[in-house]
């Protein structure tokens, strides 16, 4: 099942969303939706979804914590050189 695969994949490991989407052969948008559901259900198992926020590679601006999708550009310096969020389960 997709959900179990996802948990096994992310347990104790941080991966960028695009990498997970590639492994699971899904779209990043769909994966983000799945992860939002997972975030809620994991609580009942004493686990949690860890989200390392996106950051601007140019000025170091750190985006809103918990957001799963990569922002288009930095609000501070307008750079599009953005390090995408990474997620894991711990
Ligand atoms: Zn920036």
Short synopsis of the structure:
This protein has 90 residues and is α+β, with helices and mostly antiparallel strands. Helices cover 36% and strands 16% of the residues. Bound molecules: zinc ion (ZN).
Strand content: 15-25%
Tell me about the biggest sheet? 3 strands, antiparallel
Number of strands: 5
Q: Kindly report the average pLDDT value.
A: 93
- Which structural class best describes the helix and strand composition? alpha+beta
Q: Can you give a write-up of this model?
A:
The protein has 90 residues and is an alpha+beta fold. It has one domain (2-89). The chain is built from 3 helices and 5 strands; from the N terminus they run αβααββββ. It has helices spanning 2-10, 17-24, 28-42, and strands spanning 15-16, 49-52, 55-56, 82-83, 86-89. The chain has a 3-stranded antiparallel sheet. The chain has a two-stranded antiparallel sheet with strand order 3-4. It is elongated. The model has no long low-confidence stretch (mean pLDDT 93). The structure holds zinc ion (ZN). Zinc ion (ZN) binds at residues 56, 58-59, 61, 74, 76-77, 79.
Please outline the helices and strands:
Layout: H1 2-10, E1 15-16, H2 17-24, H3 28-42, E2 49-52, E3 55-56, E4 82-83, E5 86-89
Antiparallel strand pairs: 1-5, 2-5, 3-4
The chain binds zinc ion.
């Amino acid at each position: 099942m997709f959900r179990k695969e996802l948990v096994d994949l992310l347990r104790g490991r941080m991966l960028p969303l695009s990498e997970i989407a590639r492994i699971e052969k899904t779209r990043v948008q769909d994966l983000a939706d799945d992860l939002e559901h997972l975030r809620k259900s994991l609580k009942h198992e004493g686990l949690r979804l860890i989200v390392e926020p996106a950051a601007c590679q140019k000025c170091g601006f750190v985006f809103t914590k918990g957001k799963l999708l990569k922002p288009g550009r930095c609000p501070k310096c307008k750079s599009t050189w953005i390090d995408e969020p990474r997620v894991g389960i711990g």
